[in-house]
Amino acid sequence: MSLDHRVHANWLTAVRVDRLSGLMRAVPSAQNGGGLPAGAAARLLSSQFGGTVSEIDQALSFLLFLDLTEVANERLCRTAEGDRLSRRIRQSGPHEFSVFMLRSGLLAEQIRIALSLSSVRSGQMRLPLAPLRRTAPQLVAVLSRLPEVQLRSPVMLPDWVAIELESAWNQVDYIPPATLTGMEHRLAVGERAELYSLQYERSSRVGASAQIIWVSRDDANAGYDIEIRHSSPARCVEVKGSSDSREVVFFLSSNELDKSRTYGQAYEIHYWGGIRLHVRAADDYARLVAAGYPLIISDPSSVLFGPGWECEPTGYRVRKL
């Protein structure tokens, strides 16, 4: 099974979205100790689903790339992530596979194109169908499998679909945490925390994404990570994250402290604790929001040096005179 990841998105059609979902559910779960012989899986499933062995082989490669299936001991099995998605499909409907595809990162470029073409009227996002078909055909294929979406111009998106398009999940690829080293793991936790705050702010209303900027992606020395421009004055958000849920501990740089003093109430810290990299970002985010995150600290240069907080220097800048 092989398919260059650069052409995965280009391979999608509405029919193939349906087939991918069906194939994933047909592959036995690893939890049951089952599986299909990896070398014969495409042939076995082709007889069940129809289509050529080559087409089924491509679909299975796609599912492997998405971490929904895996090959272990020469047997093809559904992963824990595939099991979770299968349960969502069983509980909520087949559109859950399309939602998963929107969040996979593979359609990020096409989603950015769609948002650039969009307009918001009376709180509803609209997309011109003909330009969308030309510039984002695979996204159209995925959208066509979502309830309440009708492919006529303009495409009127229900709020929940518009929020999905504007969400932060489609901007980053899922990286299995087992592949991360110690430093990479810490960096990944930090990026996840920024992603969560970006989503937290973007989900406030339809059309918010255009005014919420992920600053640290372009300027690591800005002194904050996210800028929210639809408020007056604009809010500057520094994001902190940890995989530890037992206590709130983070580091604040001198540059971040200076920016906090400069912007006062317009500067805030978002803290996310207990981040789980082995869980997909959207699911982990929902869990943490339900637990009360983010912890928001407004005007930290004033608050953090008051009651309830302990701040201590952890290093010194040394310069030879």
Distance between the termini: 63 Å
Shape: globular
Strand content: 5-15%
Query: What's the β-strand tally?
Result: 11
Catalogue the unreliable spans: 1-7
How many helices?
A: 13
Briefly summarize what is shown:
The protein has 321 residues and is α+β, with helices and mostly antiparallel strands. The protein is 41% helix and 13% strand.
Question: What is the topology?
Answer:
Blueprint: H1 14-26, E1 36-37, H2 41-49, H3 53-65, E2 69-72, E3 75-78, H4 80-92, H5 95-102, H6 108-117, E4 119-121, E5 124-127, H7 129-135, H8 137-143, E6 155-157, H9 159-166, H10 182-202, E7 212-214, E8 226-228, E9 235-241, H11 254-263, E10 267-272, H12 281-290, E11 295-298, H13 300-303
Helix pairs in contact: 1-3, 2-3, 4-5, 7-8
Model description:
With 321 residues, the protein is α+β, with helices and mostly antiparallel strands. Helices cover 41% and strands 13% of the residues. The protein has helices at residues 14-26, 41-49, 53-65, 80-92, 95-102, 108-117, 129-135, 137-143, 159-166, 182-202, 254-263, 281-290, 300-303, and strands at residues 36-37, 69-72, 75-78, 119-121, 124-127, 155-157, 212-214, 226-228, 235-241, 267-272, 295-298. The model is unreliable at 1-7 (pLDDT under 50).
